[in-house]
Amino acid sequence: MEKTFDRAAQDIGNILGMEHLNVTVPNQEMAQTFYAAGLGFTRDPYMMVGPENMWINVGQQQFHLPTRDPQVFPGYIGLVVPDLEALKTRLSAIRERLAGTKFTCSAEDGYVLATCPWGNKFRCHAPGPEFGDMTLGIPYVEFPVKPGAAAGIGQFYKEVFGAPYALTQDMNAATVRVKVGPKQCLIFRETTAEIPEYDGHHLAVYVANFSGPHAFLKQHSLVTEESNNYQYRFQDIVHPETGRKLFTIEHEVRSMTHPMFGREFVNRNPSQNLGGYVRGRDAFVAA
After folding, report:
1. Helix-, strand-, coil-residue percentages of the chain, each rounded to 5
2. What is the pLDDT of residues 11-62, one digit of tens each?
3. Which of 1, 79, 107, 251 has the fewest CB atoms lying closer than 10 Å?
């Protein structure tokens, strides 16, 4: 019999990947304690090595952490880490150093929930088929949105950015998942709870068709920064037909000709320590 395949299941769309999330932090030492000592991630050894900013590598994604008043992503940031048990041990070890902050950590059903000193919430997962071959990285960010907004958000990404999406509905609300690369998605989940006011945090994506989305955004006066030849920014997600604002999150949109496209990130093996050092295992190679 002739083999048949669902070819659409492999479609990525115009957004090639989500590269970094940017949140400002007021204290670099606390940030390094949480992101490096606790979560086990790696400070970029080549970029932003001073006290004014810190780039943290997570597989082939990053957190950018400039020094300013704290910003908080609403909802949840998804992480894939290679060893949940080792993660629990590291997070427990930093608890005293982060006493008096919003830091918490707990084992949930199938993941570890960790909150940074300023309130960003992370769902830490073990590698699994739902994340493809990712063993270390940022597979998703989940945002709370107002009732009735999810479908329009999906249409925005589909029509403006050519990004496939899936819309689901349960008894409570609708949820849309937008593909932003082969192993990543943006999740927008409707809620009746109060949504915090947008505070300036942002995410960065690479796109293949760079000019097409820009034309729509410029036509609708949505471009907030013409950064350079390789990058622009916008904040408001709108219904592509009515123009109604549905959600606000700044996107740093980069072209494939951006000098940093495809840059390899250094990742360390957080299991290495003085007491149990193993020669040749300093680096962690993410799939």
Report:
1. 15, 35, 50
2. 889 999 999 999 999 999 999 999 999 999 999 999 999 999 999 999 999 9
3. 1
List the domain boundaries for the chain.
11-255
Q: What number does CATH give the domain 11-255? A: 3.10.180.10
Alpha carbon 65 to its chain's center: 13
Q: What is the mean pLDDT of residues 197-223?
A: 97
- Other Cβ atoms less than 10 A from the Cβ of 260: the count is 13
Q: Give the predicted TM-score (pTM) of the model.
A: 0.95
C-alpha 201, offset from chain centre: 11
Element (H, E) at 57: strand 55-58
The span from the CA of 9 to the CA of 23, in Å, is 32
Contacts of 131 (CB under 8 A, 6+ apart): 80, 125, 137, 139, 183
**CB–CB of 203/249 below 8 Å?**
yes
